Amino acid sequence: MTYALRSYEFWLTYYRRSWRGTLATSIVNPIFYLGALGIGLGTLVNRSGSTPEGVKYLAFVAPGVLAATAMQVAITEASWPVLGSIRWTRIYHAMLATPLQIRHIVLGHQGWMATRVISSCAVYLAVIAAFGAVHSWLAVFALPACFLIGLAFSAPMAAYAATRENDGAFVVVNRFAIIPMFLFSGTFFPVSRLPLVLRWVAYGTPSWHGVDLCRSLTLGRAHWGLSLLHVGYLAAWAAAGLLAALYTYRRRLMK
Amino acid sequence: MDAATQLPLVHARGLVKRFGDLVAVDGIDFDVQKGEAFGFLGPNGAGKSSTMRMIGCVSPPSDGTLRVLGLDPLKSGADIRARLGVVPQEDTLDMELTVRENMLIYGRYFGLPRKTVHERSERLLEFVQLEERVDSKVEPLSGGMKRRLTIARSLINDPNILLLDEPTTGLDPQARHVVWDRLHELKHGGATLLLTTHYMDEAEQLCDRLVVMDKAKIVAEGSPNELIRRYSTREVVELRFATDRPPDDLAARIDGLARRIETLSGRLLLYTDDGDRTAERVHELGVQAQSTLVRRSTLEDVFLHLTGRTLVDE
To answer: Would you place residue B244 in the very low, low, confident or very high pLDDT band (cuts 50, 70, 90)?
Structure first.
């Protein structure tokens, strides 16, 4: 474990130069999103009389965007930085010339991605609370939930990125997997509004489980059974992703 | 001296590396002793870097025996790497961090305390003459400086063996000499160096002993002087011609003037023990070469003799 921390320490040092820029985006982004959706669009939705979950639209959409943020930060951190560490900066190769092993490189980097996810989501959660859209103290569990959502995406994405020769595939993943998940897995409207087949597709995505988990926590409507199902499903993606990453990293770096 | 200290630091028997159908290293044997500067000389694609990567425990051997520091890379890779210094062919420095940060981060990979890393980096950066650039970012440094930083970084764990893969490829002549100078210094300090190169002069400058690799196999082994004595002559007369091919009948006319004659594009090489005398006799025959050069034999000639090809494509 201390070995993985050494690789984590690299990412921390590396990030020290650019944290100001990321901090600004992670505060400004949620304000824009919540302002436009919760207040702008929300005014229209609220006026219609039948809001989803019977709460103001802002309180409905905010936890959805929180989960989506965890997903998007995780995907970004697990694509270019991973491929870059193999091909451009060759950081992984440098690590591999020392006592660090593949598992330490994977865990250290995943730990770093989780740090990025949690810090972005913490800022987001604070902004949501400031907008008055947090309805329950259960919301404190939304952060560990975001950690799990992040890992459920960062681990499989890193495993995939380690098999790529260039970044062309990342655009495809974004366009055909991440953006559809962002739009259709319950972030902006309940999946019950989807046609039956698509609804079941949505239930199969880790993002729906993440969105539903976050929402049930900030609205204070979480049930043990469903929450455990969400956690278990996300954990399964994370675990499978980590195993896959150990395999693809080894195949790529220790030819 | 007990038995353990007499073991070679690197020991390979029948070492093979395959990538699918491609055989990159085809059953090579060698031993590297403590305190030796040992070289792998050969053209690109000869299998040098693959061998280096196996020794560096980042590429599992496909077959054969390999022991590094007496340990098996397949079982003890991390333990071995903790005691190696690696200067890879392509820089793996972090361009956006400073010289000092690069040293610190790398030292931390080895689990060294910060204080130790700071002390060592100060000494090592001075050794590679970068003490005035410690707080500069790596990006703007010249190629030679980056290479020297990589060397300093590779020494942070006080390694038992230093692996250098093409240490001066891509550097200008002056920068190469500075790097050679630093490596000489390490050698005199008793370090064990393993290096690959496709430069003859580098091998002659730095190596106590070397193996010549060609097409995945070792074709000769010895000290630079031994190899020259065994596979070449003391001197070489080079006849250069303006046309691509020397006149057809020329080889026949000068046959017997040298121990061996190699015909290359635009030039003839005459291997002889007395270059001046051979050159004189060539001129007596009335051979009209554009220029005539008498030089000492080098590893390039050894390679040419062993493989029939020049080492670096011209």
So the answer is: low
Superfamily of domain B233-296: UreE, C-terminal domain (3.30.70.790)
Which superfamily is assigned to B3-224 in CATH?
A: P-loop containing nucleotide triphosphate hydrolases (3.40.50.300)
pLDDT tier, A25 (very low <50, low <70, confident <90, very high otherwise):
confident
Chain A residues lying within 8 Å of B92, measured CB to CB: 89-91, 93-94, 97
B302 vs A29, A67, B26, B122, B208, CA distance in Å?
67, 67, 21, 42, 16
Residues on chain B touching A99 (C-beta within 8 angstroms): 78-79, 81-82, 109-111
User: Which of A30, A62, A57, A68 has its CA nearest to residue A209?
Assistant: A68
Q: Are B127 and B152 in contact (CB under 8 A)?
A: yes
Say whether B109 and A17 touch across the interface (CB within 8 A).
Answer: no
Q: Where in chain B is the domain with CATH 3.30.70.790?
A: 233-296
Instruction: Give the nearest partner residue to B105 out of A10, A17, A90, using CB atoms.
Output: A10
Q: How far apart are CA B179 and CA B194, in angstroms?
A: 15
Calculate mean pLDDT across residues B281-291: 84
Res. A40: pLDDT tops 90: no
For B176, the token pair is: 């190469």
CA distance A251 to chain B (A): 10
pLDDT digits (tens, 9 = 90+) for B6-50: 689 999 999 999 999 999 999 999 999 999 999 999 888 899 999
What pTM, to 2 d.p., does this model score?
A: 0.90
- In contact, A67 and A161? CB cutoff 8 Å: no
